[in-house]
Amino acid sequence: MNTPPPPYTTRDLVGIGIGPSNLSLAALAHPLAELDTVFYEQRPRFDWHPGLLIDGARVQVPFLADLVTLADPASPWTFLNYLKAHHRLYPFYFAERFHIRRTEYDTYCRWVADNLPALHFRHQVDAVRWNPDRDVFEVDFTQLDSDGEAEALGRTHTRNVVLGIGTEPYVPDPLRPLVDAPGVPVLHAGDYLTHRDTLLGAGHVTVVGSGQSGAEVFLDLLRHRPPGREQLLWIGRTAAFAPMEYSKLGLEHFTPDYTRYFHALPEPVRDEVVAAQWQLHKGIDAGTLDAIHDELYRRTLHGGWPDAVLTPGVRVRTAGRIATTRIELHLEHTQQNTRSRLITDAVVLATGHRERPLDRILAGLDPYMRRDNSERPRIDEQFRLVLDPAVTGAVYVQNAERHTHGVGAPDLGLAAWRGASILNTVTGKENYPLPARTAFTTFGLEQRQPQIPPARQPRTLTPLKDGI
Q: How far apart are the C-alpha atoms of 105 and 390, rounded to whole Å?
């Protein structure tokens, strides 16, 4: 365990949480010798959605969206350098894979985490407060032993804080009591691999959720259950098992250009836009859809149809137990306005993840925080919480700013740019030069002065009224 700093030492930056976003920031901060940083994580080591590291599942962004490359391709912490360090560069070269397996991304991140000295695992952050007498933040934490029990208490002082506490599994209200009940096989997809053997041995299995996780869980179950006796149901609220928007211009919504445009929109407009953009981040990879259809088709080659039902446009109204081993779901088809009752032996909830609330960890800063009309934290363009001017330090957030920065907030492809932006702001200098333009699309009408040829000067025009 690293030796704690002497009393009253003030750090430049304390990171809370070590997921991909803060790991990216830590890797980019590592060569900045003048910056004193430390990162805390309550888990014993880096783990990236371990329950969803299904065999064959791939990351949905290219390998260039690693922790550092899009901000510093010469960094020692690139994915390519990881391959080189493990003597796997040539096999990767010949594999010709632009999208790597999730298990490989997880292993790469752990390699980075294991080699960065500023990272402290088994450290649970309990509170963050502003000390106006010393103009610093106080970060209280608990060191945990190998069993996850409290071992010691500590406090760190810092000028800046960056929150990277990530997301948590979302369970719809009708199903929450079943997930919490012992012995009932209802689980979130985030725990899928832990319970996979139980699910493969169950009778009828229902997968709820029409996004990428639901598709991957359904495909894995389908591939490993007996032909003709699959006993699978896959339902989701969306009107179709829709492919993710993956056109090249569509992907420009995950650029710094779009992030800046989105941040400048009025709050009500931002909320409408995010709700309408679900297919940019909640759709299904086209390759996964192809694989599901291929597997279903393969099971018809000898006659008959697989015992698998795929029905979009369905929501779960209520749910309950029958005895102690079966589940009753009351379903509603949103377009037909029809209802039905289903008995199943197990349920996997591929219902996604939501941003963890910041209120608990930032309760000590609540008097200083500025909120929007929906009581969400206001976040400026540089990813800082908008605080009372009396607070001279800054609290940065990562992957908690979708309402202010758009659908790219959790995207791995923007992590390095965001981390570099934060470090440039913290240090007050351009440690990482960032591009002024990143998209061919121009989002919004820019107010540019027209380039007028000297020979033709136009007459003065009367400005048009709004809406004309």
A: 42
Report yes or no: 289 and 310 within 8 Å, Cβ to Cβ: no
Residues linked to residue 445 through DSSP beta bridges, in sequence order: none
pLDDT over 80 (residue 183):
no
Is the distance from CB of 384 to CB of 395 less than 8 angstroms? yes
Give the 3-state secondary structure of residue 256.
helix
Distance CA 98, CA 415 (A): 18
Percent of the chain's residues with pLDDT above 70: 94
Distance in angstroms (rounded) separating the CA atoms of residues 149 and 140: 16
Alpha-carbon distance of 8 to 411, in angstroms, equals 37
For the chain, state the CA radius of gyration.
25
Report pLDDT digits (tens) over 72-82. Answer: 999 999 999 99
Residue 348 · residue 206 · CB < 8 Å: yes
Q: How many CB atoms lie within 10 A of CB 207?
A: 28
The structure's pTM equals 0.91
Angle between helix 286-298 and 212-223 (nearest 10): 30
- Give the distance from CA 351 to its chain's centroid: 14
Task: Report the alpha-carbon distance of residue 200 to residue 209 in Å, rounded.
Answer: 19
Instruction: List the one residue out of 247, 54, 212, 27 whose CA is nearest residue 119.
Output: 27
> What's the number of CA atoms in the CB half-sphere (13 Å) around residue 24?
32
Among 207, 218, 229, smallest CA distance to 306 is for 229
Q: Please tell me the distance from the alpha carbon of residue 70 to that of residue 73, in angstroms, as a whole number.
A: 6
Look at residues 204, 45, 193, 216 and name the one whose alpha carbon lies nearest to residue 116: 45
3-state class of 174 per DSSP? helix
Read off the pLDDT of residues 269-317 as tens digits, 9 standing for 90 and up: 999 999 999 889 889 999 999 999 999 999 999 889 999 999 999 999 9
| Nearest CA among 241, 249, 370 for reference residue 308 | 241
First to last CA, the chain: 67
Nearest to 419 by CA among 432, 407, 405, 406: 432
Taking a C-beta distance cutoff of 8 angstroms, is the pair 425, 382 a contact? yes
Residue 454 has pLDDT above 50, yes or no: no
Q: Token digits for 429?
A: 């200098």
Do 399 and 19 meet the contact criterion of CB atoms below 8 Å apart?
yes
pLDDT tens-place string over residues 80-123: 999 999 999 999 999 999 999 999 999 999 999 999 999 999 99
Please write the tens of the pLDDT for every residue from 366-412.
999 999 999 999 999 999 999 999 999 999 999 999 999 999 999 99
d(CA 377, CA 135): 22
Q: Which helix (H) or strand (E) holds 274?
A: helix 267-276
